[in-house]
Design brief:
two-stranded antiparallel sheet, globular
């Protein structure tokens, strides 16, 4: 494992103008940071195991000076790996690969497997343990049954924005593409031992939490500040970090953060979705710099799109403009990918970006899980073993990219 400098995700000093009350940290335009939530499972049975505290204690000292971090989450069956700031997607994904390597050194001899999807196919919420931290106990106390049901795993993609005035317009424009991101990442077709009929059941479960779900369509940064002030004054949130929207500004890091995606089941798929997000944000940033208008749709279309993508994944038809034009999400994805191709060249993520075609061709993790379940006469334990094999035995990102002739 390559030794690296201390984790650069530590926030840098904030820039502030006279009119701002919430500072937005400076960041390199279109830089990338990744967060990936991973399940811990028993190697033989596939059951989730509450061993994150044990694993984290073992990993902490050995990784203290790395660019990446490995931390706990709401449930003790989960660890989260976080990259440093990458100038390219490849840099951020290399950090994630190094973090997984560090985890493997501890999980391998203990019979613990790593895997990822938006949900565990057969786990039950009442068998899971909440991490012993005040903020998690407060969350469960407030949210009750829905909070205890948050057996969900996702990815977060941060992309740097170089001008605070761009942030809210970019968030609004990204809302058009939330169903595309949900469809590409859909990986939670089973829940608590049942087929749900949804490609991403996680998307609809997660939005039950306060402050989660679709972002409010705001006009500018000042209105975002007023929104946060209202939320804090009324006790809805303690600060901006308590917002759990599908897309949110992350003032501490100087980024826009996508939180809508299910957990990706393989590293190449994580890289592909990260490249899609990065190129979209850069595309919108360029339009704004040239004085152009970004795409948008009314909130009632955004809400319908979220439901359609959650249900049908890559087979969904989505509403793509203010006029109500409806297209298969696969077709609109391919059109968008053509529009972003040159930006992918500029951002040095062409090969990662090409991984989107692989997801489109295979139908993504949700489709693969259903195929395994049907071949196994509905045995969801086989689905878990499939996910473990995919995570462990699928190509590393470097092997995947080497096989692409792009």
């Amino acid at each position: 494992m390559t030794r690296r400098v201390a984790n650069p995700m530590t926030p840098v000093s904030s820039c502030q103008t006279d009119r701002m009350t919430l500072p937005f940290a400076p960041s390199t335009r279109s830089s990338v940071g990744l967060e990936w939530e991973l399940m811990l499972a028993d190697r033989e049975t596939g059951d989730l195991v509450a061993r994150a505290p044990e694993v984290l204690e073992l990993v902490e000292e050995a990784t203290a000076l790395e660019r990446f971090t490995v931390t706990g989450e709401l449930l003790t069956n989960t660890v989260e790996v976080t990259s440093g700031v990458g100038h390219t997607v490849a840099e951020a994904v290399d950090d994630i690969a190094d973090a997984i390597g560090a985890l493997r050194e501890q999980t391998e001899p203990r019979g613990i497997e790593l895997l990822c999807a938006g949900s565990h196919p057969f786990a039950q919420w009442y068998e899971q343990q909440v991490t012993d931290k005040t903020r998690y106990h407060k969350l469960i106390e407030r949210t009750q049954w829905w909070g205890r049901n948050m057996m969900i795993w996702g990815i977060h993609v941060h992309v740097g924005v170089d001008d605070v005035d761009k942030v809210i317009p970019i968030v609004n424009a990204l809302t058009v593409y939330l169903p595309h991101l949900q469809a590409l990442s859909a990986s939670s077709p089973c829940w608590a031992g049942e087929r749900t009929g949804y490609a991403s059941n996680r998307a609809l479960v997660f939005q039950q939490l306060p402050t989660a779900g679709l972002p409010w369509q705001l006009s500018d940064w000042a209105e975002f500040e007023r929104y946060l002030e209202d939320m804090v004054r009324t006790g809805v949130m303690a600060d901006a970090s308590a917002g759990r929207g599908d897309i949110r500004p992350a003032p501490r890091w100087g980024t826009v953060e996508i939180r809508a995606c299910d957990g990706m089941s393989t590293l190449p798929e994580l890289a592909a979705v990260a490249a899609f997000v990065q190129t979209l944000v850069e595309h919108f940033s360029r339009i704004l710099a040239e004085g152009g208008e970004l795409p948008g749709i009314p909130p009632w279309y955004a809400r319908e799109n979220k439901w359609r993508a959650a249900r049908d994944g890559l087979d969904a038809r989505v509403i793509v403009d203010r006029d109500g034009t409806q297209l298969p999400v696969r077709d609109h994805l391919r059109t968008t990918m053509e529009e972003l191709a040159e930006i992918a060249v500029d951002l040095h993520c062409v090969r990662e970006f090409a991984g989107l075609e692989t997801i489109l061709a295979t139908g993504g993790s949700s489709a693969r899980q259903i195929a395994v379940a049907e071949a196994a006469d509905g045995d969801l334990r086989e689905v878990v073993q499939h996910l473990i094999r995919e995570f462990r035995g699928g190509p590393t990102l470097r092997e995947h990219l080497a096989a692409l002739r792009v």
